[in-house]
Design brief:
The complex is a heterotrimer of chains A (287), B (316) and C (250). Chain A is built from twelve helices and no strands. The two termini of chain A are 21 Å apart. Helices cover 73% and strands 0% of the residues of chain A. Chain B contains eleven helices and 13 strands. In chain B, strand 9 and strand 10 form a beta hairpin. Chain C has 250 residues and is mostly helical. Chain C is built from ten helices and no strands. The radius of gyration of chain C is 18 Å and the shape is elongated. Classes of the chains: A mainly alpha (287), B alpha/beta (316), C mainly alpha (250).
C-alpha cells in the first residue's frame, strides 16, 4: 500500500473517501493527511471485519472470566471493605471491558511490524508519505472494533442483570475510556514495532498487557490487597482508569470521575502515539 | 514373485478426493538395479514414492518391498529401506551429529556403532566440518547431503531418492551421482530414484519409467527407449512467414514432432544422410532457413513421443 | 529406546533454544504472582481452607503451567510436520507408538520446569507443607499427568490437522478446563452452573489430590479420585492420539 503524493491513495473504496489530486502546497497537505487517514482507517476496519474470527476470543474470554468470578466470589463481596454491590457482576464490568479491548490492541503494532518485516517499510522510505496518517489509520481499525466490542459487552452485562447507576452517559464514558486505552496500547505496540521490526516482539507484549490488568483494581479492590502488590496496583494507570469508571457504575454520575476516567487514558495515548511518530521519523530519516 | 524382485507394484493407485494423483501403476525393480522414475512436476512421482515407503496409504492396488506388503507389513518395510525425500527431512535446531545419532537410535543401532557410522557417513557426503553446527546454518545443498547421509545410516539394501539433486549446483550434483553409483556398484544397493532431469535419469538409471499425469507411459532402458523413437530429430528455424511451406516440405521426409514456437521438427527417416536432400527441397520451395540442427533421440524425445509434450513444456 | 531418544531430543532442543521454554515458565509464574496478589484477601473469607493464599493458588498455577508444557510438546510435533522432519520420524522401523510415548514423556519432563519455578516463587511467598514432603510428590505427579494428557490431546489434534495453528484450540480447552474448576476457590464457594461444572470436571479431583499436602495431611480418600481422573484423561487422550497416528498415512 503506497501513499505517495504522485499517485492517488490506493484504498479508495466507495463514495465516502476522497481521491486526493496531485499538486503540493500546505492546504492540500492537511487535506491529503486527512484523506489518507480516512482511507487507511477504512482499509484497517475492512481487514478486521474480514478476520472476525480473531475478534471472538476477545469477547468470549472476558465474559467467561466474569461469569466464573461472579459465581465463585459470592462470599467475597461480603468482605468488609468491599464496595457495596449486589453481585460481583457489577464490580467486574469495567474489567471485562478493558480486558476485551486489550485483546485487539496490539494489532496495529503487529500489522506495522509485518509491513516492516516484508519490506513495505522500504517502499515507504522512498516516498514522501505522511507519517501520522499512517499510524493513526492503523489504529482506526482497532478503535472501531473496540467500540463495537465495548457496546456488546455492556449490553450482555445488562442482560444478565448488571446495573449502571450513572445511566447511559456513564456507559458512553466507559466505552470512550476503553477506546482511548486501545489507542494508548496501540501506540506502544507501534513504537515497539518500529524499534524491533519483529511481529514476535510485539505479540510478546500481550501477556504483559494481560498481566497488568490483573495487577490493578480490575478484579479486586486495591484496599483489600496488601504488601508490594498493593503498591504496584495503586501505581498502575489501569487502576486510575478503572476506579473512576467503577464509581460511575456503582455510585452514579460525577464530573470528577468522568474527568479522571477520560483524561488519564487520553494523556497516555497522546504520549505513546507521539513517541511512535518520533520513532518513525527517526527511523525513516536515518538511512 | 521371484526372489530377485525387490520393489513391486501392481495397479497402485492414489486419489485425493476428486483428484487422481496416481492411476494404476505397475512396476518391478530387480535387486541391485538403479531404477529411474522420470516425469514433470505434478506427474505423481512423489506420491508414488510416499506410497512405496509407507508414508501414504494407496487407495488401490498393492505394493511389496522385498516381499513385504507396504500396508500389512509396513514396519518391516521401514526396517530395510532408506529414504531421502524431496524436502530434506531435518530439524533445523539440531546439529548434524545429533541428527545422525537420533536416526541411528531410531533404527536400533548401538551408541558406539552409531558414532562411527555417523562420522563416516558425514565425511563421505562432505559434511565432516559442519557436523557440529546447527542445521539451520546449512545451505540447501548441505541439507540435502545430510538428508542422504541420514537415509544411509542403517545401511539399507533399498534406497529411495525423491528428486535428490533438485536445487543442487552442478558440482554437488555430480558428487551425488558419484555416490549413488558407488552405493550401487560397491554395496549392491537397489536405488529407486525420481527426477525431472533427463540427464540424471540418463546418466544413472539402468531402467527408466516415464510417468505423466499419474500414469506410466513408457518403460525400459534409456537406450531401448530412445531407439523406439527411432529416427533422429531434425529441427529447422524459419521466419514465421515461411512456417507453413517449411512444414509441408518437411513432412515429406518424416513424421512431425513437437517443437517450440517458430520451429519445425520432424523425425528424419533415413537419418543424417538425407539432410542434404532436405536442405535442397527447402531451397526449391523458397524457404529461408535461419538455423538447422540434427539431434539424436533424447529422453525428451521419448517423453514427447509418449505424451505429445516436451518435458520442458512446449505444446505440440 | 526410540521413545527415550525422542524425549532426549526434545530436551536438547530446549537447551539449544531456551526461548522455547520461556512462555511455559513465565506464564505460571505470572499467574501465581497475579492471583495471589489480587486475591490475597480470599483467606479472610470463612471456609477458604488455608490462611496463606499461596497454599491454594500455587498448585493451580503449577498445573496451568503443566497444561502449557503439554501443549508445547505437541507443538514441537506440529513444527516437525510443517518442516518435514516428521516424515523422518514416521520412517522409524517397527511400531510408531514410541513416537507418541517419547513426545508424551518429553512433555511430562518439561512440566517439571514450571512446577519447580512456581513452587520456588511460592516458597518466597510463605508456602507451607503441612502434609510434609509428600505434598511435593503429589504436585509433581499431578503436573506430569496433566502435561501428558494435554500433550496427547494436542497430538491427536496435530495429527489430524497438521498445522501449528490447531494448537490454539487445545490451549483454550486446557485453560478453560482449569478455570472451570476449584483452581482459585473451594467448591463450596461456588454457586449456580459453575458449581455443577466444577463438580463433574475431572480437573477438580486432580487439584484436590495435588493440593492436599498444602492444606493438611494426605489421605487416601483425596488421593484415589485424583489418580483415577488423571489416568482416565491420559487414557482417553492417548487413545485419540494413537487413533489419529494410525490414520496419519491415510
Amino acid at each position: 500500500m503506497t501513499c505517495s503524493p504522485t499517485r492517488p491513495a490506493v484504498a479508495s473504496r466507495g463514495p465516502k473517501s476522497e481521491s486526493p489530486t496531485v499538486s503540493g502546497g500546505a492546504a492540500t497537505g492537511l487535506r491529503l493527511a486527512g484523506a489518507q487517514t480516512l482511507a487507511l482507517t477504512r482499509r484497517s476496519v475492512v481487514s478486521e471485519w474480514r478476520q472476525l474470527g480473531n475478534v471472538v476470543p476477545g469477547i468470549v474470554f472476558p465474559l467467561l472470566l466474569a461469569a466464573v468470578y461472579t459465581h465463585q466470589f459470592t462470599r467475597v463481596i461480603l468482605l468488609p471493605g468491599f464496595p457495596a454491590v449486589d453481585s460481583f457482576l457489577d464490580f467486574v464490568l469495567p474489567a471485562s471491558l478493558v480486558q476485551s479491548v486489550s485483546f485487539g490492541a496490539t494489532e496495529a503494532g503487529t500489522e506495522l511490524a509485518r509491513d516492516i518485516e516484508n519490506g513495505f517499510f522500504d517502499r515507504l522510505r522512498a516516498s514522501p508519505c505522511m507519517r501520522l496518517p499512517l499510524l493513526l489509520g492503523r489504529l482506526g481499525g482497532a478503535v472501531v472494533v473496540a467500540a463495537v466490542k465495548g457496546v456488546l459487552i455492556i449490553a450482555i452485562f445488562l442482560l444478565f442483570g448488571a446495573e449502571i447507576a450513572g445511566g447511559p452517559a456513564a456507559a458512553v464514558v466507559l466505552v470512550v475510556a476503553a477506546v482511548l486505552l486501545v489507542i494508548a496500547i496501540g501506540g506502544l505496540g507501534q513504537m515497539l514495532a518500529i524499534f524491533t521490526g519483529s511481529q514476535e516482539a510485539v505479540n510478546a507484549t500481550f501477556p504483559l498487557v494481560f498481566t497488568s490488568i490483573f495487577m490493578s483494581s480490575a478484579f479486586f479492590p486495591t484496599n483489600l490487597m496488601s504488601g508490594w502488590f498493593r503498591e504496584v496496583a495503586e501505581a498502575n494507570p489501569v487502576t486510575w482508569i478503572i476506579d473512576p469508571v467503577r464509581r460511575l457504575i456503582l455510585e452514579g454520575w460525577s464530573w470528577a470521575d468522568v474527568g479522571q476516567a477520560l483524561v488519564v487514558p487520553l494523556v497516555i495515548s497522546v504520549a505513546t502515539v507521539t513517541m511512535a511518530v518520533v520513532a518513525l521519523n527517526r527511523k525513516l530519516s536515518s538511512s | 514373485m521371484t526372489d530377485n524382485v525387490v520393489i513391486e507394484a501392481s495397479g497402485l493407485k492414489r486419489t485425493f478426493g476428486e483428484v487422481v494423483a496416481v492411476e494404476g501403476i505397475d512396476l518391478s525393480v530387480a535387486r541391485g538395479e538403479i531404477f529411474g522414475f522420470l516425469g514433470p512436476n505434478g506427474a505423481g512421482k512423489s506420491t508414488t514414492v510416499r506410497m512405496l515407503t509407507t508414508l501414504l496409504r494407496p487407495t488401490g492396488g498393492t505394493a511389496r518391498i522385498d516381499g513385504h506388503d507396504v500396508e500389512k507389513s509396513a514396519a518391516a518395510v521401514r526396517r530395510i529401506i532408506g529414504v531421502a525425500l524431496q524436502d530434506a527431512s531435518i530439524d533445523p535446531l539440531m546439529t548434524g551429529n545429533e541428527l545422525m545419532r537420533l536416526q541411528a537410535v531410531l533404527h536400533g543401532i548401538s551408541r558406539s556403532e552409531s558414532r562411527n557410522r555417523g562420522a563416516e557417513l558425514l565425511a563421505r557426503v562432505g559434511l565432516a566440518g559442519a557436523a557440529g553446527r546447527r542445521v539451520a546454518t546449512y545451505s540447501g545443498g548441505m541439507r540435502r547431503r545430510l538428508d542422504l547421509a541420514l537415509s544411509l545410516v542403517h545401511e539399507p539394501s533399498i534406497l529411495f531418492l525423491d528428486e535428490p539433486s533438485a536445487g543442487l549446483d552442478p558440482t554437488s550434483r555430480l558428487a551425488l551421482w558419484e555416490e549413488v553409483r558407488r552405493l550401487n556398484s560397491e554395496l549392491g544397493t537397489t536405488v529407486f530414484l525420481t527426477t525431472q532431469y533427463l540427464e540424471e535419469a540418463d546418466e544413472l538409471a539402468g531402467r527408466i519409467a516415464i510417468i505423466d499425469h499419474g500414469r506410466l507411459v513408457r518403460e525400459g532402458s534409456p537406450a531401448d527407449l530412445k531407439s523406439t523413437v527411432g529416427s533422429p530429430t531434425l529441427r529447422v528455424d524459419v521466419d514465421p512467414v515461411f512456417l507453413e511451406s517449411a512444414r509441408s516440405v518437411l513432412i515429406g521426409f518424416g513424421p512431425e514432432r513437437p517443437a517450440f514456437e517458430g520451429r519445425c521438427a520432424i523425425g528424419l527417416d533415413g537419418g543424417a544422410a538425407r539432410v542434404a536432400e532436405v536442405v535442397r527441397a527447402l531451397d526449391v520451395a523458397g524457404v529461408t532457413v535461419s538455423h538447422l540442427e540434427l539431434d539424436l533421440p533424447s529422453l525428451d524425445d521419448v517423453f514427447a513421443d509418449a505424451t505429445g509434450r516436451r518435458l520442458e513444456g512446449a505444446e505440440k | 529406546m526410540v521413545a527415550s531418544a525422542i524425549c532426549g531430543r526434545g530436551m536438547r532442543r530446549i537447551v539449544a533454544r531456551p526461548t522455547l521454554i520461556m512462555p511455559v515458565l513465565l506464564m505460571p509464574l505470572i499467574f501465581v504472582v497475579s492471583f495471589t496478589g489480587a486475591f490475597g484477601s480470599l483467606t479472610r473469607v470463612e471456609g477458604y481452607g488455608t490462611d496463606n493464599v499461596f497454599n491454594w493458588m500455587a498448585v493451580y498455577a503449577a498445573m496451568q503451567g503443566a497444561v502449557f508444557a503439554g501443549v508445547g510438546g505437541a507443538s514441537t510435533t506440529a513444527e516437525d510436520i510443517e518442516n518435514g522432519f516428521f516424515d523422518r520420524l514416521l520412517l522409524t522401523p517397527g511400531s510408531r507408538v514410541p513416537i507418541l510415548v517419547g513426545t508424551m514423556a518429553y512433555s511430562a519432563l518439561r512440566s517439571t520446569i514450571p512446577t519447580t519455578g512456581v513452587l520456588l516463587v511460592s516458597a518466597l511467598g510463605g508456602l507451607r507443607l503441612p502434609g510434609g514432603p509428600l505434598a511435593l510428590v503429589t504436585v509433581y505427579v499431578a503436573t506430569a499427568g496433566m502435561a501428558s494428557a494435554f500433550c496427547l490431546l494436542g497430538l491427536a489434534v496435530v495429527y489430524r490437522f497438521r498445522t501449528m495453528r490447531s494448537m490454539i484450540l487445545i490451549q483454550v480447552c486446557g485453560f478453560s478446563l482449569m478455570f472451570l474448576s476449584t483452581g482459585q476457590v473451594p467448591i463450596h464457594f461456588m454457586n449456580g452452573w459453575l458449581h455443577t461444572v466444577a463438580r463433574v470436571n475431572p480437573v477438580t479431583n486432580v487439584l484436590r489430590f495435588a493440593r492436599q499436602g498444602f492444606l493438611g495431611d494426605l489421605t487416601w480418600s483425596m488421593t484415589w479420585p485424583g489418580l483415577v481422573a488423571l489416568g482416565a484423561m491420559v487414557a482417553v487422550a492417548g487413545s485419540l492420539a494413537a487413533h489419529q497416528l494410525r490414520r496419519l498415512a491415510a
